[in-house]
Amino acid sequence: xxxxxxxxxxxxxxxxxFSIGVAAFLIKRNLITVFMSIELMxxxxxxxxxAFSHMWHQVSGQIFVFFxxxxxxxxxxxGLAIIIAIFRTRQTLNVDQxxxxxx
Amino acid sequence: MxxxxxxxxxxxxxxxxxxxxxQRHPINSALSLVVVMMSLAVLYxxxxxxxxxxxxxxxxxxxxxxxxxxxIMLLNAGEEERTTxxxxxxxxxxxxAAAIFCLLTFVFLSERHALGxxxxxxxxxxxxxxxxxxxxxxxTKLLLPFEVTSILILVAILGAVxxxxxxx
Lengths: 103, 168
Fold this sequence. Notes:
The complex is a heterodimer of chains A (103) and B (168).
Chain A lengths: L6 H21 L3 H26 L3 H31 L13
Chain B lengths: L1 H21 L3 H21 L3 H26 L8 H27 L1 H4 L14 H11 L2 H22 L4
């Protein structure tokens, strides 16, 4: 019998990944990297869904993850198209210089 | 074996995520995000979600990350430069992320006895596979949401084409 891993360990791993995603979202200055940290946060939440689905012995959590993946794919397509449009008009990817709505 | 898998690939995922945070060039961040997604696929498999492990590799690290790398190459994105905004983000970002992490970890650790432990491969060690169980629910009970997601994908494709098109 091998050593077993508590569910809480998976959830804490997901919490670590989510916090790193939040930190990257706030700190990174490149628009594409900010978008990638959103994907990291989505992945961390998916890990909690799978862990809870394992805990409750139901596949509903895995179906949630499936829908999250579909929505993430759609979101990546639209978001990267928006990034291309922004780069075409403003010639920059730095989030500090994309502040048209600020002033 | 489960413990070994968890430690190796959990450490790999955290290392990849930290590398994403620390690298300055977007292409390095993208490749370390691929590492995170591949190790998460192994963790899904160890939790008994074989279908999601395959979908993670194909959809996330296959399709989405290739798309990211294409856009980085297309826009010729270079290293990010430090600005005043980034210094303010450092001051706010690290404590904020640490606070979220502490809150979540406190909740999970205080409930760890109720959460229980895992066993490798999940509960599905009998004949029905994970994929057949998911597809049974997806094509009977959740058929309408499943079809609606296809419309969502179609709208996203059209939106991406319209947004990325060159103005005449």
